Structures are given as structure tokens and as C-alpha cells.
Amino acid sequence: MAYRALSAALGLLLFGLFATPSACTPVGRGSLEHDVEDLLAINKRQGGVFSVLGVVGLGDKTVHPRLEIRELEKNADQWNVYLLGMYRFQNMNQGNKLSYYQIAGIHGRPYIPWDGVNAVDGGGGGYCTHGSNIFLPWHRPYLALFEEILYLNARQAVLEFPDGELKNRYNNALTTFRMPYWDWAAAPPAGEGVMPWSVQRPTISVVLPNGTATIPNPLFSYTFRPISRDDFVDSPWTTFPSTLRDPSSNEANAASRNDLVALELDRMRSNLQSRVYNVLALQHNYTEISNDRRPGDSIESIHDVLHNTLGSDGHMSYLAYSAYDPIFWLHHTNVDRIFAIWQALNPDSYVVPEANPYSTFTAAANSVADITNLVTALHPFHRNDAGDFWTSESSRHTDVYAYTYPELAGLNPNDTSPLVSKVNTLYGPKPTRPQQTKRGTSTIAGAPNFSGQRQYIADIKVHKFGLDGSFNVYVFLGDTLLADEPLGGSDSNSNSNSKQWSAAPSFVGITGFLAQNGVTNVQKKTQEANGAVPLTAALEAKMRAGELRSMQEDVVSAYLQRNLRWRIAKTDGQVIDVDAAPGFQLSTVWAEVEPAKSAAEFPKVKGEYRVLIEATDGRPGGFHTGD
Ligand SMILES: *[C@@H]1O[C@H](CO)[C@@H](O)[C@H](O)[C@H]1NC(C)=O
Ligand SMILES: *[C@@H]1O[C@H](CO)[C@@H](O)[C@H](O)[C@H]1NC(C)=O
Ligand SMILES: *[C@@H]1O[C@H](CO)[C@@H](O)[C@H](O)[C@H]1NC(C)=O
Ligand SMILES: *[C@@H]1O[C@H](CO)[C@@H](O)[C@H](O)[C@H]1NC(C)=O
């Protein structure tokens, strides 16, 4: 197979890089481990505690923006420094606690202590907090840790260049370097897809001290060195030698199908745009936007659908294994960016004490998390030599880690109108190019303009761990899916068909539930999670197409009754009958909206959301009279 031949060629290349004795081994490991040990020694105390300080820990306190990956790529020097840093980082010995492997392993498997932070009674799983009010702050020091060690590796790579102009340029590139994010919700540059080519290509070109070379792309996958059966316990995770996206099989020679993932992302992007816009422009309560436990949309729920789609039954779609895929870091940096923008727009709403149903490695189920106390520490991230941990309070502002985001750089906190304008430009109402599909122009549109003064959303709730793995709920507005795909909730058990659902002209959007298999805890299995698929933009498009008379609730209700469809598929494509999904319910809700008066304002929701009962009454999984 072509893929295997390529791997063999890469193996030879790697062997060449590592085995050739040379005065300046370009991406060697020996000297790197030595440097990391130095860093550890600097930070070492009695218990060997590592203070997670972000790039501040490397002596760089100046705040610089993390750039969108395509922007970073435009700066050839920073791009090269980034790739060399990622490559070295991934080649660190897996036994080192600052290796890519062990840092990725903090999130989920292996469920073992990191930096001496031990499990508690009643704890379980990895350290990451999900379905929790501290889901967003927890990932902040986590990303800062990754950024610091990435930066360190990049710096080491530059050190190996001979003195001269090129080295000076790379050192200069480092002074403002911060790790990039990938914006999967804004319209991509004209002619490009949502998923950058730089993360899809198996190899990539870099400049090494002795010239240009093609290396295995560190943004394409992480290759285990080697895979550990003890750490990863179950199949196929003990089988795959590298991280995979939409794996072609469960065998060791499975290939990533980034092309299929990219296609799915292109089809769902405009609905993601609506979701990001709704959260930033219309939702103002931190408790509600931070996690998926309450009806309506949240940053966590939006985050889940990306995990599921990027993984499509590969590493990203399993909580315990997701952080090994390098795209995890690009994705989560964007999640952190959306969080930071939301914070700037809503500076007074933040973590309030709340019990979280899921256990982590260091917290029992139902522990109350607030912004400061010990139980609520963002384990296992120490913040100083005394062994104190980061908390939601100390991680509240990104400046402490010496980074910001382009939309927030130089923002006067007393005047957020420039930020509102930027959010409107990136995610707000504007005509987006209609999507051409094989069967005509899709109804998918960008964010709504609320000219009908109404917002409509399909709210979905379900037991998150009820299906033994991650799954997606697809929402459609229209009579047919595809010609070869008869409509109905349970008429088909073919796994391949669900992969075509997003190609249907009637497709509106997906909400995903990131879970994992093998959960036996009853309480976990019955825990409700929520997601949303906004309908307003799609309904406005139906109006433009003459298929819907008005945005009035009675008209829309009758329209939805005839046209709204929903279906469920697991991330491997297996179709799940709506009735077989524990706790599943889809309800359509609406509210009056006051449209924005200018590009520097947001629309406003007036009053409460109300359920449009008739739209779903009497249908499997729908909200019924009396619910
Ligand atoms: C650069 O050096 C590496 C090993 O140090 C070698 O494998 C590679 O072929 C060299 N590249 C060029 C362009 O000379
Ligand atoms: C925020 O949402 C939570 C949960 O719905 C609610 O209990 C709380 O009162 C809300 N806070 C404000 C300020 O509205
Ligand atoms: C914001 O307003 C406060 C209170 O009026 C003021 O003290 C502060 O200097 C202002 N900040 C900026 C950056 O203008
Ligand atoms: C908003 O969308 C509606 C319905 O699609 C369209 O008729 C109208 O011109 C748009 N309004 C603005 C201000 O763009």
C-alpha cells in the first residue's frame, strides 16, 4: 500500500536524522533531554515539583498574541520555528515528565500521577474536568504548560543553527512566538477549506541547519515511541502506532482520512459559526456557557462536536486519548480564545461554587468547585515552588501566562465596542457563499441577521455516557436526505450512510457528545448533557428561497412540524435509533430578539426562551405535550 511505502520512507529519513553522527545533529534527542533536565533542575524542589508558568517560566513576561495557524504560516520564520519545536517536542523520550507523551497523558490515559499529584479516594479518570464549571479554566494552565515546553524545544532547535543571519532571524521570530490556534468557526480564506492543509499533509518541509528537508509532519499525527500496552489498556489504542483521524480500519496499518474529516467540517462550519456567535453575542451567564449540563448551548458542547468530527472514531473522539493528537492543541487553543473573548465581553460573570457530577483523577464525583479552594485546584498544575496549584481565580486572565489573542490585544476593558465589531465581522450576520452540493445549493447559511426578530434553536439533551462512546445528533430541515437514503429514524442500520448525512441539502448542523466507552458507573451513565443546533440562519435562508412565509412562531412551528428531522450516529458511523439513546429529547425553543442597530452592537434576546411544542409533539425523541 502507498501509505506503508511512505511510512517506510519516513522511517529511513528519521533514522537518518537521528543516527547520523554530526557536529550539529539537527533534531537530535540527546542534547534535548539534557536541556529539559536543566529546566527541571531549575524548577526542582524537594518533591521535584514543576511550576507551570507558560513562556514566563522561560524568562519571557511580555504578552504576545497567539495567532491563527494560517496567519502564523504566513510568517516563514515563525512557522519554521514552530514546526521544529513541535517536531523536537514529539521526539522527546516518553519517560520524561515534560515529554509530549506525558503532557498529553495528563488529560486522560494513562490514569497515573503527573508531577507527584496523586489520586484521591473516589477519584477516577484523567485529570481533565468535563461537564464542570471549571472545564474552561482547567485547560488554561494545561495549554500554558504545552506552550512552555513547545517554546523550549523551538529555542533548542534554533540554538543548533550556526551563528549568522539565519539564526538571528529565528531568534527574532522566537521573541514574539506563541502557539497558534485554529479557528474552525469563521469562514476560511476564499478558496480554502475549514481544515488547513498544514494539518492534513503527512510530511512537511522545514529548514534545518544544513538546508531544507522534508520531515514527518508533527501537526499530522503523534507517533508513539513506542505504544505502551500498560498505559492504553484497550484495543485499538494498543494497536495504533500513531494518532489517527477517521481511521480507515482498526488495524495497525490504518490510515487517517483527513479528506473525509475536512469535508464534514466544511459542511458543518456555518452552523458552528452560528453557535459561536450565539454564545458570544447572546449568552451572558458563565455557569451556562462553561459546560454542557444545562439546557441550551455552551462552549463545552461546541468543543465536543469538533472532538467527535476530528476523531471520527480516532483518538480525538475519545476523552482518554484525545490529547495525543496534535490537533487537540490547535483546537483547545481556539476554545481558550473563545473563552477569553467571552470573558472580555462579560467580565463580571465567572465561576461560582457548584457540585460537578463527574469524578477526575483528583476529585470525587459531586465535589463542589469554586474559584479558589483546594479541592478546586486545577490539578496537577503547580504554580510556584511552594507547591501551590493554579486555581480558576489565578488563571482568570491570560496575561499571567504572557499571551493574549489578536481580537483582545490592546483592548481597553472600559470600551468593548471594538471587540463587538470584531466578533460581528468574524462570526456575525453576513451573507456567506451558498454551498454547492451534488444535489444543488444547500440551505446552510452563516449566522442569522435576526431581521425576523426571532431566534429558533433545537435544544438536545441526552445521557452523555448512555451509548458506550461518543456520538453526534444531526438536524435537518427538509423532506429528503439523499436519493439513496430514505428518510426515517430507524430504517437503516448501515454504518456508511450516516457519513453522507451532512451532504444532504436539508442538513443544518450537528451537536456532538464527547464520551467514552466502557463506563460502568450508573450515576455517570444517567448524567444529562446538552447541546444545541441553531435553526435561525437556516430558517432565514428558507425565507429567502421562498419556502417559508415568515419568521413568526406559528408559521415556523407549522413549518418545523413538517420539515424538522433528527438522527443519531456514533462516531464510527453506526446509526442509533432515537429511542435507543437514553434520556434523549429534542425540543425547539424560540425567543424574541432585538436586532443589533449597528456593527458595533450585538442583538439582544428579549425575555425567556419558550418551547414550540407542536413542532416536535408526538415524534420519537421529540418534546411532547406534558413534558
Ligand atoms: C542534513 O543533515 C542530516 C543529518 O544530520 C542528513 O540526514 C541530511 O541529509 C542533511 N541534509 C542536507 C540537505 O544536507
Ligand atoms: C446563571 O445561571 C445559573 C444556572 O442557570 C443560575 O443559577 C444563576 O442564577 C444565573 N446567574 C445570573 C446572574 O443570572
Ligand atoms: C477604566 O475605567 C476605570 C474607572 O473609570 C479607570 O480607573 C481606568 O483607568 C480605565 N481604564 C482604561 C484602560 O482606560
Ligand atoms: C436579513 O435576512 C433577510 C432574510 O433572509 C433578508 O431579506 C434581509 O435583506 C437581510 N437584512 C439585512 C440587513 O441584511
TrEMBL record:
Keyword Isomerase part of the UniProt annotation: no
Protein EC: 1.14.18.1
MF (Gene Ontology): metal ion binding; tyrosinase activity
Region forming the signal peptide: 1-24
Record field: catalytic activity: L-tyrosine + O2 = L-dopaquinone + H2O; 2 L-dopa + O2 = 2 L-dopaquinone + 2 H2O
This protein's record includes keyword tRNA processing: no
Compositional bias annotation for Polar residues: 433-446
Keyword list, A-Z: Copper, Melanin biosynthesis, Metal-binding, Monooxygenase, Oxidoreductase, Signal
Name this polypeptide is given: tyrosinase
Native organism: Massariosphaeria phaeospora
